[in-house]
Design brief:
elongated, mainly alpha
Length: 281
C-alpha cells in the first residue's frame, strides 16, 4: 500500500501543521523552542566531536565535512519526531499565510518566540559542553577546531552568509517537507537524513546551528590552550579578532537568518503552494 502523500496532500499537511503552530500558547512555544535549540546544538557538538581531527587538516577537510554531515541529521530527527519548534522549519508557515489559513501576525509571533527560545536552548548546550571539559578532547584539538569553525563563520561577507543561508534552508525545509509525506518512523528518518547530510557536507549556513557553533567558539577563544592549538592549525589573528559576540550577531546571524527565511519561504513553501493550487480530493 502506498503511504506517500501526493504533492497537493503535502501542501495541505503543511498548512494544517502551520495552523497548529500559529495557535500555540507562549509557554508551549518557549518550551518546545528551547528543546529544538538544544536538539540542534546536540547535533552540532556531536558533528564537531566526530570529525574534528579530519576538519583540522586541509587534506581531509572534505571527508570531515561528510562525516559531520552524517552525524548532524539526528538533530532534525529529534525536532520532527520527538516534537519541537524550530525557527528554520517554521518558515514553511508562509504557505498557510498565502492561503489565508493563518494571519501574518500569527506567523511572525511564532517566529519571534521560537527564534529566541532556539537561542536559549543552544546557549544552554554551549554552557554545558564548556563546563564538561569536552573541548579538551584530542589534546585540545577539539577546542581548536571549534574556534576554527566559528571564526570561519564570522569572517563571511554579508552576501556569502546570506547566499549560504538560502541554500541551507532550502534543503532543511525540503527535509521537513518530505517528512510530511510519510507517517512512518522509517520514512521520516530517511526523508530527513539525506538533505541534512548534503547541507552540512556542503558547508551551508543554518542560523540555529550557528547559535551553537559560534558561541561555542567564542567560549573556547577564552581558553589559551585552545587558542594556541587553533593558531597551530591555521587560524589567523584577524580571524580570531573577528570571533566576537558582535561578529556573531552582525556578521553571521542576521544575514544567515534572512537567507534561511528566503530559502524556506520562497524555494519550498511558496514554490509548492503555487505549483499545487487545487485542493486534493
Amino acid at each position: 500500500m502506498n503511504t506517500i502523500k501526493s504533492g497537493i496532500e503535502i501542501v495541505e499537511a503543511s498548512v494544517a501543521v502551520a495552523k497548529a503552530k500559529a495557535a500555540g500558547g507562549t509557554v508551549k512555544l518557549l518550551v518546545l523552542g528551547i528543546l529544538a535549540g538544544a536538539f540542534i546544538a546536540f547535533a552540532a557538538q556531536g558533528s564537531n566531536m566526530g570529525a574534528f581531527n579530519l576538519l583540522a587538516d586541509p587534506a581531509t577537510y572534505g571527508l570531515g565535512r561528510a562525516l559531520a554531515g552524517a552525524i548532524f541529521p539526528v538533530g532534525l530527527m529529534l525536532v520532527v519526531i520527538a516534537g519541537a519548534e524550530l525557527f528554520t522549519g517554521n518558515t514553511l508557515m508562509i504557505g498557510a499565510v498565502v492561503k489565508r489559513e493563518i494571519k501574518l501576525t500569527a506567523m511572525l509571533r511564532n517566529w519571534g518566540i521560537v527564534y529566541v527560545a532556539n537561542l536559549a536552548g543552544s546557549l544552554l548546550i554551549v554552557w554545558l559542553i564548556a563546563a564538561s571539559g569536552q573541548l579538551h578532547g584530542g589534546a585540545d584539538l577539539l577546542g581548536a577546531v571549534t574556534i576554527k569553525i566559528a571564526a570561519g563563520k564570522t569572517a563571511l561577507s554579508f552576501g556569502s552568509a546570506f547566499s549560504l543561508g538560502i541554500l541551507c534552508n532550502w534543503l532543511v525545509c525540503l527535509a521537513v517537507w518530505m517528512a510530511f509525506a510519510t507517517g512512518s518512523m522509517t520514512g521520516k528518518i530517511f526523508a530527513i537524513f539525506f538533505p541534512i547530510w548534503l547541507f552540512i557536507t556542503s558547508g551551508f549556513e543554518h542560523s540555529v546551528a550557528n547559535m551553537y557553533y559560534i558561541p561555542a567558539g567564542i567560549v573556547a577563544k577564552g581558553h589559551e590552550a585552545y587558542v594556541a592549538a587553533a593558531q597551530g592549525i591555521g587560524v589567523t589573528d584577524a580571524a580570531l579578532a573577528g570571533l566576537s559576540w558582535q561578529g556573531f550577531f552582525v556578521n553571521n546571524l542576521i544575514p544567515v537568518t534572512l537567507g534561511n527565511i528566503v530559502g524556506g519561504c520562497v524555494f519550498v513553501s511558496l514554490a509548492y503552494v503555487v505549483a499545487y493550487r487545487t485542493k486534493a480530493k
